[in-house]
Amino acid sequence: MELLVENLKAVYRGVILALDGVSLRVGPGEAVALLGPNGAGKSTLVRAVAGLLPKFEGRVLDGHIRLNGQEATHLDPVRLSALGLTALLEGRPIFRHLTPLENLVAAGHRLSPKALKEGIEEVFARFPRLFERRNEQAGYLSGGEQQMLLLGMALLTEPKLLVVDEPSLGLAPKLVAEVMATLDALRREKGLSLLLVEQNARAALGVVDRVYVLERGRVVFEGDAKAAMADQDVMEFYLGKDVVGFREAKRYRRRKRWV
Ligand SMILES: Nc1ncnc2c1ncn2[C@@H]1O[C@H](COP(=O)(O)OP(=O)(O)OP(=O)(O)O)[C@@H](O)[C@H]1O
């Protein structure tokens, strides 16, 4: 599925401009990272694409969101989901008081009983830890296990475009690598399009084709992921915190402010 965002402007409470004319594209079967510092507008973009801005007292002021060419700017989440878009919001929104198995059943409510059973078997085959803990309370799973559960739930919605907001948040490096590898495998096996929103640039760049960097509601860099990773200037200037220490990055920015 193709996602096209064109000159999108979004505000909260009518006054806080969080997206100031953002354009980006995720092609069919393509994996794209959206990177940027705290407050850049990444989650706002995810909410806008998923039709969830009104839930956060926000709205799209201007611009378009298109799915496979179809106007999708003001569609509600149910309609968007029926079109094949699944968005995983920041903070691992699972049903914490239910078990992993019950969470999966809830996520797959649109499937036939047979497809649901097969889907859940597939999820458990992919994530054996979830199978082991399938009848425990999901809120007590580790952060990594909860992230896997969320990905399993996403799979049961049979997405064509998966938008994932900061899956690495709060995870140890080894788990971050595992989550990224899982996203990569899912994308390839299922032919999904993937928009991966991250602060962890290094982790995300390893599994995507292209990258956009957002700062203060604007796209400040756009390019091929491998080229961006190989380009020390790009990495340090736009994504400095990841590569060099925060202080050094700030100094570097000051030096390069004239560009
Ligand atoms: N519900 C809200 N009401 C008012 N302002 C908001 C709301 N959510 C976000 N903002 C503001 O919008 C701007 C963009 O925030 P957003 O959460 O999209 O950034 P982000 O890049 O996702 O940051 P982070 O990585 O910290 O999640 C920030 O200035 C933020 O304070």
TrEMBL record:
Instruction: Kindly list the GO molecular function terms attached to this UniProt entry.
Output: ATP binding; ATP hydrolysis activity; branched-chain amino acid transmembrane transporter activity
Q: Name one GO biological process term.
A: L-amino acid transport
Return the CDD domains for the record: ABC_TM1139_LivF_branched
SMART domains in UniProt:
AAA (SM00382)
Keyword hit for Nucleotide-binding: yes
- Which PROSITE patterns does its entry note? ABC_TRANSPORTER_1 (PS00211), ABC_TRANSPORTER_2 (PS50893)
Q: Which InterPro entries match?
A: AAA+_ATPase, ABC_transporter-like_ATP-bd, ABC_transporter-like_CS, BCAA_Transport_ATP-bd_LivF, P-loop_NTPase
Which keywords does this chain's UniProt record carry? Amino-acid transport, ATP-binding, Nucleotide-binding, Transport
Q: Where is the ABC transporter domain?
A: 3-241
Similarity comment: family membership:
Belongs to the ABC transporter superfamily.
Official protein name in the record: ABC-type branched-chain amino acid transport systems, ATPase component
Q: What species is given as this protein's source?
A: Thermus oshimai JL-2
